[in-house]
Every structure is written in structure tokens, then in C-alpha cells.
Amino acid sequence: MIPLPKAILTTLALLLLFILPSCRYMRMPDEKAKQQFAQHDMYAHLMHMSVDGISLHYVKVGSDTLPTLFFIHGSPGSWKGYEKYLMDTALLKHFRMIAIDRPGFGYSNRGHAYHLPKQSELIYGIVKKEMNGKPLHIIGHSLGGPIVVKLAQDHPEAYSSLTILAGSISPYDEPKERWRAIFVHNPLQYLLPGPFRVCNTEIWYFKKELYGMDTCYNRLTMPVTFIHGDKDNLVPVHNAEYGRQKLAFNKQVKVIIIPGANHHIPWDHFDIVKEHLLTLGK
Predict the structure, then answer these.
(1) Which among 140, 145, 152, 153 has a CA at the least distance from the CA of 99?
(2) What is the rounded distance in angstroms from the CA atom of residue 231 to the CA atom of residue 154?
(3) pLDDT range class, residue 282, cuts 50, 70, 90
(4) What is the CA radius of gyration of the chain?
(5) For the whole model, what pTM was predicted?
């Protein structure tokens, strides 16, 4: 048996390896964010709303008369992970864009982990508020992928398409990672900064909750696109094939596998994702 101190150090190292790539997209004060958009001659609405007594935060840009791209980040993260998309002039010609801080991250009740069904319920509160009678397309990266699926299973009538970027949707391809439990059911969890603690806890929740979604894919009759890298060491590329198999009845499913790509699809392969998003406006 590994001595406890060594086990703890090993666990910390594994956890940090998983989450450090997302650290560059942590939260930014609203005033500073507005200044950044202003530097690009843009106005951004930095929104706060309460859903079921929980404060949620999101960013909205573009005309309310256009269809919507609704972005959901992974774990950890914030709306800033989609900043480049929000500032893209080609996308703004065709879409209003919304990017959220998921519950537990950014300025959305930061530091509290939520189960997958509750996240879907809370995020739908924003979706419902921002409906404008135009098509609404939801995009999720990594752990945002299963949230996109859950949102669409809960309210399939609300969404015109789903885009899942390196999404961890298959319960059968999830690594066991029992080491995560050390930081879920133990005071040691408070050794971790808030976002990292939430990241670890929600991943532990989701591993079990993905099974509950497995029988509800028949509700997804809208266009669904999976974009994944074949060198993704965090979320295996077979997740995309799992999605294709679960949606075999749906003739509007597309799978894009990027050779040599790792888990950072939204940032390392912006042009591929953007090209796909532009097709949604046609």
C-alpha cells in the first residue's frame, strides 16, 4: 500500500495535471471585461441573474434579433474560455453569442459543486430568459459536453443544434480515478483552491450521473456535431463514437475527428470550430 502522504502527493499531482491547462481562463471582473471588449469597439452585457436562489453570471454580445450561440465551458473554467469567439466579427454578423460561468465557477456561486441534473436546471434558467424566438445552438467543451446533452434531453424543443467539443459523454469510457474520492469525502479537499475543488467534485459526481443519461438519447432529434481530437489524453476520442452510436437513428449527426489534436479543441483549432459554427447560420 502507498503511504498516505505519498498517495496525497500523487493525487495532487494528477489533479493539477488535469486542471492546469484551464487556469488561463479563470474569472475576470466585469469592468475589466467591458474594457477589453471596448478595445475592440464592442459592447458586452455582463449579466447576473438568480435561478432557484443561486446567482448565475454570463456574458452576452451581438444583436438580440439574431440566432444565438450559447457556449458552456469545461472544468474548471469560465466564460473567458470563449472570449475569442465572442469577439469574432464574422460570427457576430450571423449570431448573438452568450457564454456562461457554469454553476460553481467564475461569478456563478463560485466554490460550490453541483450535480449534473441541477446544473442543467440552473443553466436552463438562463436559456429560458434569453430566448428570442430565433434558433438557439448550444456548444459545450469537455465537461460542458454532457451538460449540453442533459440540457437537450430535458428540453429538446429549446435547441436547434448541439455541438460537443471533446465532450466526456460516455460513462463506459470514463477512467475510474478513485483517487478523486480523497478530495470529495475528506477534509483534505480544502487544500485545493475553490475552482479546483469544484472541478474534482463535479467530475466525481458526473462519472456516475452519465449512466442516467444513457437511455435518453432518443430525445435528441436535432442536428448534433461532435468535434474531437484523436490524441486527446484526457477525454478519449471514443466518446465521439459513443455519441454516434447512441444517435444512430438521427440522420443529422456529424463527427469531425481532428488528426493529432489534443483536448484543447476550442483554442488550438479555433478555425475548424468557427467554420462549423458558421454553417449553423445558413
Answers:
(1) 140
(2) 32
(3) confident
(4) 18
(5) 0.88
Q: Which residue has the cell 436562489?
A: 53
Average pLDDT over residues 224-230: 99
Work out the burial of residue 122: count CB atoms within 10 Å of its CB; fewer than 13 is exposed, 13-18 middle, 19 or more buried.
buried
pLDDT at 131 over 70: yes
Q: What is the largest CA-CA distance in the chain?
A: 61
Is 202:113 a contact under the CB 8 Å cutoff?
Answer: yes
Among 3.30.70.1490, 3.20.20.210, 3.30.70.100, 3.40.50.1820, name the CATH number for the domain at 4-279. 3.40.50.1820
- Give the CA-trace dihedral at 104, 108, 111, 113, to 10 degrees: -20
Q: How far is CA 275 from CA 74, 88, 164, 279, in A?
A: 21, 12, 14, 7
Question: Could you give the C-alpha distances from 205 to 49, 136, 196, 210, 212, in angstroms and in order?
Answer: 25, 28, 14, 9, 12
Domain boundary assignment for the chain? 4-279
Closest listed residue to residue 107, CA positions, set 78, 129, 80: 78
**Torsion angle, alpha carbons of 142, 143, 147, 152, to 10:** 30
The amino acid occupying position 110 is: R
pLDDT at 186: 57
CB atoms within 10 A of CB 156: 15
